[in-house]
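Thread: "does anyone have the structure for this chain?"

Original post by V.I.:
We have the sequence but no experimental structure in hand. Need at least a predicted one for the grant figures.
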Amino acid sequence: MLRAPFREDPETITAFVAEKRIWIHQKLAKKKAINHVSHHREFVNGQGFLYPGKSYRLRFINNEQIGKFEKSTDGFVLKLRHGYFELYESQKHNARNHFISWYKRQTEIKLKERMPRYDKRVGVRVEKLRVSDLGHRWASLSRNGMVNLNWRTVMAPIGVFDYILVHEMAHMIVRRHSKEFWSLISRIMPDYKERILWLNEHGAELDL
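Reply from O.Q.:
Generated one for you, C-alpha cells below.
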C-alpha cells in the first residue's frame, strides 16, 4: 500500500515509485530473508547447494577414495564434478569457507564471461571489479567506478545474475533510479521486472 497526499499528481507518484523500485525490493527481500523459513544448509552428504539456479548435492570423499579422483590443479579443495560438489572428508570442518572461496572465484569467472555481452549495449566498460560479502545487498557501485558483487549472486539463475550486473553497469551512466535509468534497463532487458520479482521471491535462498 502506498500513501500520498490527496492532491498529488499521479504522474509524480508513479515516477517516485519507479525511482524507488529497487530500494523497495531490496527492503522486501531483506525482510523476507529475516522472516523466511531458514535456508541454512548443513554440510553433510546429500545436501544441495546452488549454482547457478540449479541444486547440486554434496558428497564427501574419504581417504580411501582420494586416489580415485583427480587432484586439484586450481588450488581449490572443493570441486563441482560429475553433477556433485566434492570435498575431502578431512575438510568437512571448514566446508563453509571452502564453499565461499569457490563461489567467489566462480563469480569472478562469470563476470568476465558475461560483461562482454552487455558493455556495448549499455555503453560502458567496467574496469574495476570486486567480489565480496555484501550481506543483503546484491551489488553496489563505488564512487570510483568499482562494481562490487555479492558472491551469493552466482547461486542465482544466469538471467538474474545478468540483471544484477547490468543494473550496476547502468548506474555508471545514470546514478539515480530515475525514469532514464529504468528506460535504459528496459531497453537492454525488457523482462527486467520478472528478474527483480525472482530476487524478491527467492533471494533468501541464495545463502549457505
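V.I.: this helps a lot. The longest strand covers residues 55-61.
O.Q.: and The first helix runs from residue 10 to 19.
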